[in-house]
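Note to self: keep these together.
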Amino acid sequence: MDHFKLTAAVQQHRADMHARHRRIALLTRQLREAEADRDRAVERFVSLGEVHEAARHETGLRAIGRELGVTHRAVTGMVERARSRTLHPAADAPLIPVLTAEQARAYVESGALGNLARVQVAFNPADIVLESGLDPSVFPDLGDHDVPNMLLHGDDGAVVGVEECLSGYGGTGPSNTVRLLKDLGFAEDLARQVYPHRYIELAPDGVIRASAESLHGVGGGLALSPGGRHFVVRVREDMARVVADWTAEVMAEPTKYPWAAGTRRARVYLTRDAAAPLQEPYRAWRGNATFSVIIEQGRLQLWAAAYLPFQFSDILSTEQVQILDAADMRPADVEPRTWLDRFIPARRERPAFLTISEDGQDLTHIPDGDAH
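Structure:
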């Protein structure tokens, strides 16, 4: 096989691999949504029996378990999940399809998108998430390297993502973008504006806005939690800066980002055992970080892999204090060594973690597996 045929074969197999991976991601999300619907239906059935005594025989946990072929403990779990789940308007929002450039061209030409109103292209996928105006849960494979760098918006609100189309440099990704834009009817000189801009929005008749640099410096990658109820940013390096960026660019803009609106809270773990539910599986290229600080606002959580105190007499490590400072969560006029007295005045032993918030409440979204 000659070089050109081999290159074409590699590209085809890569596209095929990505398409199947995204299909699995979509099916996984759909299964999670179906399980949530099932949990809600079971909870409503149980609630009926709680209100109407005549129906209690049929709505008991064991009776439901027999009907569904599961244990009564499993039914209890369904009810508890349904009652604790935080519902939000985006829960029923459809996932946006993510297509190859060729598939996107055919999709638009078929009329499925409606009239093409605008196009967003970025070098940094965070710019797409934060400037799209969409709830992050609509992206089928949410993550720092999986959000599409290009979105096509129809005039009726429909959105399509396009993979392997980028902007901001002279390379294959932007060239793919230029080729697709020309196929969609954009003038060549307009399409070529993607090369010098790290972020650009285009309408068929001109540039809406463009920036030579990325609009957002946030890093860490936004991921959907296993339960699908909130978003987690895992911060492993340059933690104070990354947390400060998320605080200033997202948490300080609740109107623009309603999914990150709410009371800001922090949980700071004091021992490795207490933080165990937050530990990642080992990966050769990154080790296995233990996250010890969680900053929460709305449905957004920042997990920072700050080192734990070296000495038992130390309440918090320097890194943990720096992260609280970056999130504007360090209590005023309270020295770190007195925080146990400030937040747990009646303590008898060292707690597993400290909770810091104006309303005195713990996190809304407790990490999976955390028994505390």
